[in-house]
Design a protein that fits this description.
The structure is a homodimer.
Chain A lengths: L2 E5 L4 H12 L3 E8 L6 H12 L4 E6 L34 H16 L3 E3 L15 H14 L1 H4 L5 E3 L7 H10 L24 H13 L11
Parallel strand pairs in A: 1-2, 1-4, 2-3, 4-5
Chain lengths: 225, 225
């Protein structure tokens, strides 16, 4: 059976990716990170989702990026901003996060002999992070092929970003067509253990707007309506 | 004062890099990884070395790659081979290791506003790892520039591999000219806490030959002469 590593945050996009990889017949190796994120409720979601989709294996890697500071998502001294509070690259940007996650996924993919890595980034409805752009992804692919034994042996691991050109609404419609239950997912940057979403952060705003645009019922419980 | 992140394993090459970065006037942010390596004696060495060179900060990141398996350096079920035991890419290859380490260094460099990352890889006297080649490094540089806020703002972080075209002997001669005390360093893949090197693994063989070729006294205590 063909294998894929799927980066799984527990949010809407990565869950759609997992559903898609499963639908395409891959044995899925789900990979999550406990990286010091304040919204670690997403990790509980990720565990449920991996179980729900019968992932072959689910690993949660401990990697305390919070120690290095520099992001509202991990640094206790920087508050998570509301949507629209700032121009440009937001405070929630975690330096090199996708690169770090993809690199570890690359190592694992080589170990389990997976042919693909799925990542749920989008260059359409996103938060302005540089590591969500197609040109970034193409450069990562080239680097990954040169970095690895599999690449040297001309069986490179392919990085798949099936949502890269989809809006949030299009991603949702794709997920709905695959039978995804979005009540399992957590997007909010302030998500607490009770699973209540703030409704105000960038991630909540993008999620809410996605459900509205897709005309799909939003199962999320928001603190602010 | 200009800043650099320096990847510091505690071995000969990374210590030479740290000495060089210091000599070039950088405030050095040394970065080591407790990644499940059996030879974690190198981490004690790294701490001493960071102190010796008065690094501005030294972080040891916990990242249990051993959980993912796949390398003689981290997997208890795979013995560390002697030098010459195998053709091609050796069992000590850790999938995507340099990519993972450089990615985390990239994140930290962006946070502390470092202009460079120093890495002690060499494409001359090396163990056949794909992620030690100049073409790999060039691809990582390109990816890193696209991945980061600093790259978007046209102040990319430069990856420096000053040893990439040096033999082990040339690296040693460079280090000696900078006053490096190599008795502080640990290279052996089987290094134990008493600091005794096996003398037989790839890393010991390269180290010993380097000292011989450079006609520099080797301060290492080897179990096998």
């Amino acid at each position: 059976m063909k294998k894929a590593v799927v980066l799984l945050s527990g949010g809407l996009d990565s869950t759609t990716c997992l559903a898609l990889a499963k639908d395409q017949g891959y044995a899925c190796y789900a990979l999550s990170f406990s990286y010091g994120q304040k919204h670690n409720a997403e990790l509980f979601a990720a565990k449920n989702i991996a179980r729900h989709f019968a992932a072959t294996q689910h690993e949660v890697i401990d990697l305390n990026l919070g120690r290095l500071g520099g992001s509202a998502l991990t640094d206790p001294s920087i508050a998570i901003p509301d949507h629209g509070a700032q121009e440009g690259i937001p405070l929630t940007y975690v330096p090199a996060r996708n690169t770090i996650f993809l690199s570890i996924a690359l190592g694992w993919a080589e170990i389990v002999q997976a042919e693909k890595i799925f990542i749920g980034i989008s260059a359409v409805d996103y938060s302005g992070y540089p590591d969500c752009r197609p040109e970034y992804l193409a450069a990562f692919q080239r680097m990954a092929t040169l970095a690895t034994k599999t690449g040297v042996e001309e069986k490179p691991i392919h990085i798949e970003a099936p949502l890269i050109h989809l809006s949030k609404a299009e991603t949702l419609m794709l997920g709905v067509s695959l039978g995804v239950d979005y009540s399992l997912t957590v997007s909010c940057y302030r998500a607490n253990v009770e699973g209540l979403a703030c409704g105000c952060c960038d991630s909540c705003k993008l999620r809410r707007r996605g459900f509205e645009d897709a005309a799909v019922d939003d199962p999320t419980r928001y603190a602010v309506q």
